[in-house]
Design a protein that fits this description.
434 residues; nine-stranded mixed β-sheet; four-stranded antiparallel β-sheet; Alkaline Phosphatase, subunit A; 29% helix; binds zinc ion; alpha/beta
Length: 434
């Protein structure tokens, strides 16, 4: 059913009550509903689940109580296109041919035709597939709608735009008798960090009085990034508080979504973010730059019926998401995917990349990083001390893992149209275009 029909939450709750495990029409084994919730720009260490001292993520904590927290999950890059692509397509950025900064040079490249979306596998297995994405980069014309029977991109839209799109999907979902795969990607807590009387004020009641003129929350990070040194002391602390307020609001939003869609213990739920955010730990603000843990270390919490709750420390990656979700539903992962099923033992290094200049290889608490021709080895979480001299074998091993990484490489799809003036302006405002 299409159209803007808003179904009262109570009716929907009744419709979904007890609808956790759904039998397939052929009478095969029941399949769980699968929910993939991703948010933009959320660094792991700003969630309570990952040790943050501000209570900004109560919903995520609740999910973690019945799920598994992957303490060491890496994004495959430091911005949206590669991070989200790896999540949905189970492949690394260089395989998908979109690892060069698509937005920055405004090249119009789509996903390669060989790449298989997690949504395609669910759809082909008889799932109803629904996706709502808030981030203009994740556009249908680039191929992100692949496998989704219903897909909506709300641009760089705020939470209410996502809520609107979800309300439209709920009408269809209510009538769908198949098991369901739903992906929701929220643009928040991406900048600009908007002050909220409900979500920011509780973190610092005095912040509103200090926002200044123009107010700190109306400044785009692009302006602040021009000279990050201008943001320090109380100003930097206030910026972080605004970011945390967005995280709190986003967490509350997902709590509402989970309630309205009747997400429960019988469902597979995975929460992650596409990359993190820098607050001058290495001098910079924002993301879409060097692969420091501020931008690479992302939260990943997985809840699967019957799987004991707990915490895991192996190095994992967003590239593991597609394989895990499909396997958790009892289906066979695509042979194109390079990720591992996170329900079982996982091993090996994980990679991150920004263009051809920045590379990072992570394994067992170590990180080998190359910027241009210069490489370093870090023993995490310390990313200031180069340990490549004292742990030269470790450095050589991680470097070798990168050089022998293998995996098929595909050509991105050429797109017919160039970016429109409006799109360019939007990208410029977000700091993606010079
Ligand atoms: Zn992003």
């Amino acid at each position: 059913m299409k159209g803007r029909i808003l179904i009262p939450a109570l009716v929907l709750l009744m419709a979904f009550a007890g609808a956790g495990l759904l039998w397939t029409s052929s009478g095969e084994a029941p399949r769980p509903n699968v929910y993939l919730f991703t948010v933009d720009t959320l660094r792991a260490d700003h969630t309570t689940v990952y040790g943050y001292d501000r209570e900004v993520t109560p919903w995520l904590e609740q999910l973690a109580r019945r799920g598994v927290v992957f303490e060491n999950c890496a994004s495959t890059s430091s911005w949206t296109v590669p991070g989200v692509s790896s999540t949905l397509f189970g492949a690394y950025p260089w395989q998908l041919g979109i690892w060069e900064a698509t937005a920055k040079n405004s090249k119009r490249q789509g996903l390669p035709s060989e790449a298989v979306s997690v949504a395609e596998v669910f759809r082909d297995a008889g799932y109803g597939t629904y996706g709502v994405a808030a981030n203009a980069h994740i556009s249908p014309e680039r191929g992100y709608e692949r496998g989704f029977e219903h897909f909506e991109n709300v641009g760089f839209g705020p939470r209410f735009a996502v809520a609107d799109a979800l309300a439209r999907i709920q009408a269809d979902l209510a009538q769908d008798e198949r098991p369901v795969f739903l992906w929701v990607h929220l643009f928040d807590p991406h900048e600009a960090y908007v002050y909220s009387p409900k979500h920011t004020a509780i973190l610092d009641p005095d912040l509103k009085a200090r926002l200044g003129e123009p107010p700190l929350d109306s400044l785009l990070m692009k302006e602040l990034r021009k000279d990050p040194r201008t943001v320090s002391g109380q100003g930097l602390a206030d910026l972080v508080t605004l970011y945390d307020g967005e995280i709190h609001a986003t967490d509350a939003f997902l709590e509402r979504v989970s309630r309205r869609f009747g997400v429960g213990d019988d469902d597979v739920v995975l929460f992650a973010s596409d990359h993190g955010e820098e607050f001058r730990e290495h001098g910079r603000l924002g993301h879409h730059g060097p692969l420091w843990q501020e931008t690479v270390h992302v939260p990943l919490v997985l809840a699967v019926p019957g799987m004991p709750a707990g915490r895991r420390t192996e190095q994992v990656s967003l590239v593991d998401v597609a394989t895990t979700l499909v396997a958790a539903a009892g289906l066979a992962p695509s042979e194109q995917w390079v990720g591992q099923d996170l329900r079982g033992d996982v091993s090996g290094a994980r990679f991150a990349q920004l263009g051809s200049k920045h590379v990072a290889v992570l394994e067992s608490g170590w990180k080998w990083s190359r910027v241009g021709d210069e490489s370093r080895l870090y023993e995490l979480p310390d990313e200031h001390t180069d340990r490549s001299a004292e742990a030269s074998e470790r450095a050589a091993g991680l470097k070798a893992a990168w050089e022998s990484r293998g995996f098929p490489v595909w050509e991105p799809t050429a797109m017919e149209s160039d970016a429109t003036d409006e799109e360019r302006e939007q990208l410029r405002a977000m700091g993606y275009l010079e």
